Every structure is written in C-alpha cells, then in structure tokens.
Amino acid sequence: MVLKKTKGKENKYTLEDLLKPETDAKGIKKIMTNSPKQLASLLNYSVGYGIITLHDIINGKEFIESAFDLDTLLLPLIPAILGYHVGQKVKDIVTKNSEVLDAHKKETNELNIPYFLKDENGVYVNCNDKFAEIFLGCCKDEIIGKTSYDLPTIKSLAAKKYEASDKEIILTGEMQIYDDTVECADGISRVYLVNKTRLAFNGKNYVSGTMTDVSQKAKTVQYLIDESYRDPIFEVYNKKFYNEKINQLIENYMNKPLDKHAKFSLIMVDIDDFKKVNDSLGHDIGDIALKEIAGIMKRLTRENDYVFRYGGEEFGIIMENAGKKSAKRTAERIRKQIETYAQNFADEYNADVNPTISAGVEQYLNIFDKSTSIDDKRDEFFKMVDTKLYQAKQNGKNQVWS
C-alpha cells in the first residue's frame, strides 16, 4: 500500500484505507504508527465486526507477529483491522444476526488467552476454556448464564469492581485497559493485562474482554523500580527513596494527626573523621568500613525501619510508629555497637583511625504552616535533624543528640 503524506500535517487515515485489498502487513503497521489516535477512535465501531474473524488471528499467526508486537498492541485492535481487511465477507456475516453469537463462541474458544463476554446485566454469555480453567477451575458451561456474584471463587469485592467497570463500558462505550492481580484456581495470584470493550450484537450491548498474563513482566518492572530506590554498593535505600518515603509519611501524618501509628522519627548518622580513613587506608578499605557500618544499622533496626544512604558517609534511618525516645534508644544502641567495631577496625589495620558515628534524632511534629508544601516540610524537618547531628559533632563526636 502506498500511503500519501500531507506536507506539514499529521497523516490522516480512515477505515477506507484498512479496507483496501493492497493494504498489507507493512501498510497496516505504518497506519498504526502514524495514526494511533484515529484508529483508537475507530475501535469501538470496528471491533464489533472484527471479532467475527478471530480465526484469522489463529490461522494467520505469522502475519500477525510480523506486523505487530503482540505484547504491547491492544489485542482487540488486531481482529478489528483484520475484520475490515476481509471486507464484504465480514459484513455479510454480521448482517445474519442469528449466526453472529454462535460464530463468536466457536472462534473465541480457540484463543490461547482467557476470553469472556457478558451481557448488560453482567451475565456471562460466553467464555473460552482458558478463562474457565485458569480462573475458576471448571468447564465453561458452569459459568455461562451466571454473574460474577454467582461464582464462588470470585470474592464479592472483586465482583463489585467488575460490575462497576462493566457498567461504565456499556454506558460510555470506552475501552478499558488495566492491570489486575487475580487469584487463580490453582491458588496462585497472577497479574493480568485486562482489555475490555463494548460490542453490539443484534441490537444489544455486551462487554468483551481478554486477559493476558503479564506476571513475569510485572515482576521485572517491580524489580527495576525497587532497584531504583536502592544504593547498589551498600545494599540500603538511597536518597530518592528517602524523599518519597518521608513525603508519604508527612502526608499520612497530616491526614491522621491523632493516630498514634502515624507518628515517625528520623535518625541522621555521620561517620566521624571518615576522610582520615580514606586518606590513610584508601577508598577500598573505606568502602569496607561503610558496608560494615551500614550492616550494623540494618541489624539493629526493626523490619519496618528504613536504612538509607543520604550521600558520602552520611546515612539515615526512618522509623515509622516511633517517637523521639524510641528512636534515640535505637540510635544509642547503634552508636555503641559501631564504637566497638571502630576499635577493632583500628587494630585490624594498625591505623590511627576511629570511624565512630555521631547522630541526630528528631520526631516529626505538625509545627509547620498549613500552606507549606510537603517538599518544604520535608526539607525543614531534615534541617531540624541535621542541626542535632551538627551539635553532636561540635560537642565531641561519637554521641547522639535529640
């Protein structure tokens, strides 16, 4: 297919382009690349016809995979385009309203991903074997004719969520695409990319949905997100995590100032005379000391505390549901343990170094003006703790101030 470009304007394509016999895989891909918004707006209209030709997806698997990235393409768009691509044949089938649903049921059962079709009342009119086996551990005949509320493996909260989503699709005609964590029949929770759209058969509206297992991708994405919050050398959280976590805790405290569980404290730690360690023993030995000190902080804090590296030789600990006294006791335990480590470190390397720590402790209190932004509140709170740390340094080091 030859696609004409309009100089200085975005390319515009219509259903007529999709109907042309010469529109091959390359042409369809080019249309999608240049006019995704136009095609999306055509989807609700076109998918009603396209669903009839789902066998084209199965029989033309090589064609589909060469034209599109199935992991990122919206699945209903494929049958929509193919449906129009066969042109008059599809129109002839659709005009025979009594045959549409039967053809739909036969062809969707061959899909290798879970599929379902509900009517306006939330009753399952159709689903394929994959849907029945994976989510309910039964045959599809036990599902058809029932609503989500009637199925014992679907919890009432989930059923309410599905009902609200389906009603919105029926009302607006807008397609919905979202990730959903679903407990499957085998007891394992998996993440699915749910793709739902409105279809029209014989004057009635239905909700058609496919579900693609993206659990492994979700784990990979979550792993990458988690890694972005961690210091790769010292195996603690980083400054980015600190900023976001403190903001979250401040917001929670503002919403629940009287809730004792909303309180939190911050400990800031700086290693005393650490420059001397690096200068006399080298940065590699300095990193060994930093790792050990970070390890002591992790070992002497609770599971729900967050040890992070703020920068250089400065570390911190966020303590949820902890007041100033509790945080100071924790800081003092850490200080004593590191004092012992510092003595052993000096002996091991036969060096005149003493990598003890100084610490500042403060509990967050709602003392800031209401108009102050959360970021500014976080920065002001940090200054309060940092002032305590500075006082510990100025008054002899190797001590905790609060």
Describe it.
This protein is α+β, with helices and mostly antiparallel strands and 402 residues long. The protein folds into three domains: 95 residues, no CATH class; 132 residues, PAS domain (Beta-Lactamase, 2-Layer Sandwich), CATH 3.30.450; 170 residues, Reverse transcriptase/Diguanylate cyclase domain (Alpha-Beta Plaits, 2-Layer Sandwich). 50% of the residues lie in helices and 19% in strands. The strands form three sheets. A five-stranded antiparallel beta sheet has the order 2-1-5-4-3, sandwiched between helices. The chain has a five-stranded mixed beta sheet with strand order 9-10-8-11-12, sandwiched between helices. The chain has a two-stranded antiparallel sheet with strand order 6-7. Strand 11, helix 16 and strand 12 form a beta-alpha-beta unit. The protein is elongated and about 85 Å long. The N and C termini lie far apart (74 Å).
Question: Major sheet: size, sense and barrel closure?
Answer: 5 strands, antiparallel
The CATH architecture category of the largest domain equals: 2-Layer Sandwich
Shape: elongated
Rg calculated over all Cα atoms: 31 Å
Our estimate of the beta-strand percent is 15-25%
CATH T-level topology of the largest domain: Alpha-Beta Plaits
- Derived structural class: alpha+beta
| Helical amount | 40-55%
Notable traits:
12 strands, Beta-Lactamase, five-stranded mixed sheet, alpha+beta, 16 helices
In short:
The chain has helices at residues 15-19, 25-34, 36-50, 54-59, 61-67, 77-85, 88-95, 97-108, 129-136, 156-172, 215-228, 239-255, 274-281, 283-299, 324-349, 374-394; strands spanning 115-119, 124-127, 176-183, 189-201, 204-213, 230-231, 236-237, 264-271, 305-311, 314-320, 357-363, 400-401. By secondary structure, the protein is an alpha+beta fold.
